[in-house]
Every structure is written in structure tokens, then in C-alpha cells.
């Protein structure tokens, strides 16, 4: 690994490894080792050959990884004041998350001016289909990709109401994407509700999600009324998506759920409808 990193540093600094013997001497490795490294990195598209025997340069895969890392740093910097604004406006905890394999990874958190007891911490990882932001990220991926990320059935469950089949999850995610956001009602953490929306990148991909969470009773107050929560999240997601080079109109706005209307064809498998008519799922109670 150290040898590969030295080689990549050399190429990033303007070297081309055209002369293998000279490059090996500079990097303090043997010529056969250098040749094997270049073959492996070329196969993985981390480096690519220059035409007419001109040596090597960094490949598209490496550049893509670098661009993603830089974008992630920008996203963290830009998202922090947005999350702080949401927490102050709604009195709820606000989170920034990304998809890491089949898990939701929590990168940022801003706390409100009211106490909130939650198991979700910075760096927490939770099975993606069990969280509201994870569902929004999964909803923007093809069904086959979701299956590969989440693995075989039965899917992990947080409660007896959790969706444990891919077919049931597919129906639920279709509803989430149609609405443009995901609601969760005291499913992953007892007494904690959450709402999430996706952040779109330059290619229209869901690169991250933001969510707010708080005590279930708090969503019945004027400060954190569902319609107000949804509008605040959509506005924040639209702003962040624009800053990250996403679509000018940000994430798609589904029908406003502030009226608490559930899907017309009824809730998806593994979900139930609460007294106000919102799909209250067992697989997304985390922030």
C-alpha cells in the first residue's frame, strides 16, 4: 500500500513513470515491483497509459474518487449552517447522512435548544432501510442496486413492523420518492419521529440526505407542525442541491404531506397508518 501511494504521489506531482528503472530508483522500490503496481493500478483504472509510450498518468477512477472526496468536504462545510438553521427554526435535531454500503452513516448533527434523547450520534451507522434518510437515499437507486447493498432476505428489523422483504421495501420506497420525502413514526427509536429529504448532486444523483428528528409529541406543536417541517426540509435540500451543482429546482417536490394524507392506494407492506393518515412505517424511525 505504501509503495502504491508513493507511486500515485509521483504521478500526481507530474511524474509519468516512462522510464521504469529511473522511477523505481526514485521511489526506492524494485523495477519488477513497480511494473506490477502499474499493471494492477491500470487494470483498476486508477492510472492509465499515455499514448506513444509516454508513460502513465492518473486515471479516471482516481480522479473520480478525488472529486467525490472534495465534494464531500464542500458538502460538510455548506451543510453545517443549514442544519443549524433547521434545528433553530424547528426545535428538532438535524442530521446530514450518506449511504455507506447498505448503511446510513451520520456525518453531521446540530442540536436544538430543547433536550433530545437519541441513540444516533456522529459516526453512527444504521441499516439504511431502517432510517428515514437511508430510505430517501435508497429510493434514488435501482432495485437491483438496493438488493445488492442490503443483502438477502429477511432484511434487518428494528421492530415487529419493520419491512423485511425487498418487495415490501420497493413499494415503500416508491411512495417515499413520489412524495419527495420520507416520514417515520416512532419506529426505530421509541417516541422519536423523523422526516428526511435527499440532496442531489450534479448528475441528479442522491449524494446525501438531511433529516430532522424529535419527540413524537413535538411534531404536534406549531413550531414543528408536519407541513412546516416538510417545507423547511425541502427548502434546505433545494439550497444545498444547488450549491453542490445539482438541479436548479433541487429535489423533486412531491405532494405536500402536511395535510397528513397517506398514499391513495394505502400504505406499503410493513407499514401502518396513524390516526392522522400518515404512513407510519416500522422501518425508518431513526433521524
From TrEMBL:
The keyword Hydrolase does not apply. Residues 61-246 form the IclR-ED domain. Residues 242-287 are annotated as: Disordered. InterPro entries: GAF-like_dom_sf, HTH_MetabolicPath_Reg, Tscrpt_reg_IclR_C, Tscrpt_reg_IclR_N, WH-like_DNA-bd_sf, WH_DNA-bd_sf. Signal peptide: none annotated. The keyword DNA-binding applies. GO terms for molecular function: DNA binding; DNA-binding transcription factor activity. It comes from Roseomonas acroporae. This is IclR family transcriptional regulator. Keywords: DNA-binding, Transcription, Transcription regulation. It holds the Pfam family HTH_IclR. PROSITE patterns: HTH_ICLR, ICLR_ED. Residues 1-60 form the HTH iclR-type domain. GO terms for biological process: negative regulation of DNA-templated transcription.
Amino acid at each position: 500500500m505504501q509503495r502504491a501511494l508513493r507511486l500515485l504521489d509521483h504521478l500526481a506531482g507530474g511524474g509519468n513513470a516512462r522510464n521504469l528503472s529511473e522511477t523505481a530508483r526514485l521511489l526506492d522500490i524494485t523495477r519488477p515491483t513497480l511494473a506490477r503496481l502499474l499493471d494492477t493500478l491500470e487494470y483498476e483504472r486508477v492510472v492509465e497509459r499515455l499514448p506513444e509510450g509516454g508513460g502513465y498518468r492518473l486515471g479516471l477512477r482516481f480522479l473520480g474518487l478525488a472529486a467525490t472526496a472534495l465534494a464531500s468536504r464542500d458538502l460538510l462545510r455548506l451543510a453545517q449552517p443549514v442544519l443549524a438553521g433547521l434545528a433553530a427554526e424547528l426545535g428538532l435535531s438535524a442530521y446530514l447522512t450518506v449511504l455507506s454500503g447498505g448503511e446510513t452513516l451520520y456525518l453531521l448533527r446540530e442540536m436544538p435548544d430543547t433536550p433530545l434523547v437519541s441513540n444516533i450520534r456522529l459516526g453512527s451507522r444504521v441499516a439504511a432501510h431502517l432510517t428515514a434518510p437511508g430510505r430517501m437515499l435508497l429510493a434514488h437507486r435501482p432495485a437491483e442496486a438496493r438488493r445488492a447493498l442490503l443483502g438477502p432476505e429477511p432484511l434487518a428489523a428494528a421492530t415487529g413492523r419493520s419491512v423485511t422483504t425487498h418487495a415490501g421495501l420497493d413499494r415503500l420506497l416508491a411512495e417515499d420518492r413520489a412524495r419527495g420525502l420520507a416520514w417515520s413514526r416512532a419506529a426505530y427509536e421509541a417516541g422519536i419521529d423523523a422526516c428526511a429529504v435527499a440532496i442531489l448532486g450534479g448528475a441528479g444523483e442522491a449524494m446525501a440526505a438531511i433529516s430532522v428528528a424529535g419527540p413524537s409529541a413535538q411534531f404536534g406543536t406549531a413550531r414543528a407542525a408536519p407541513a412546516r417541517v416538510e417545507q423547511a426540509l425541502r427548502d434546505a435540500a433545494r439550497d444545498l442541491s444547488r450549491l453542490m451543482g445539482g438541479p436548479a429546482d433541487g429535489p423533486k417536490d412531491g405532494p405536500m404531506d402536511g395535510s397528513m394524507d397517506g398514499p391513495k392506494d394505502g400504505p406499503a407492506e410493513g407499514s401502518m397508518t396513524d390516526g392522522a393518515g400518515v404512513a407510519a412505517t416500522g422501518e425508518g424511525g431513526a433521524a
